[in-house]
Amino acid sequence: MLYFTQLIYIKEGANDSFEQFETVAIPLIAKYNGQLLLRVRPDAAQYIEQQMDPPYEIHFGSFNSEADFSAFMKDETRQQFLHLKDQSIRNSLIVLGSRL
Fold first, then answer.
1. Quick one: average pLDDT of 2-31?
2. Which residues have C-beta within 8 Å of that of residue 95, sequence separation ≥ 6?
């Protein structure tokens, strides 16, 4: 099992494009033996301590394998909508890991 945590930083005023991309991308996760376990949009009051820029949204999910994750990233439908991701996301960080 492969787990991922993604910190997403969006561009100012790009909320609509971001939501359009997420509407396409999130349902595709299941097609590749994955699950989005948490989708969190924290506000400033929820941070206890921070040493970095707070993300707009945090995703935590899993795939059965690294091959499933790679196939999701290369999905043709997802690829057709990457322009929305490029329009809306200024930066993102994906951390991959496994359960200990």
1. 97
2. 4, 5, 6
Q: What is the pLDDT of residues 42-96, one digit of tens each?
A: 998 999 999 999 999 999 999 999 999 999 999 999 999 999 999 999 999 999 9
Strand partners, 38: 60
Is residue 94 within 8 Å of 6, Cβ to Cβ? yes
Other C-beta atoms lying within 10 Å of the C-beta of residue 68: 18
Length of the chain counted residue by residue: 100
Strand ranges for 2-67 from DSSP E: 2-10, 34-40, 57-63
Q: Where are the domains of the chain?
A: 1-55
In what helix (H) or strand (E) does residue 68 lie, and over which residues does it extend?
helix 66-73
In the block, tokens 């999130």 appear at 26
This prediction has a pTM of 0.92
Numbers of helices and strands, H then E, in the chain: 4, 4
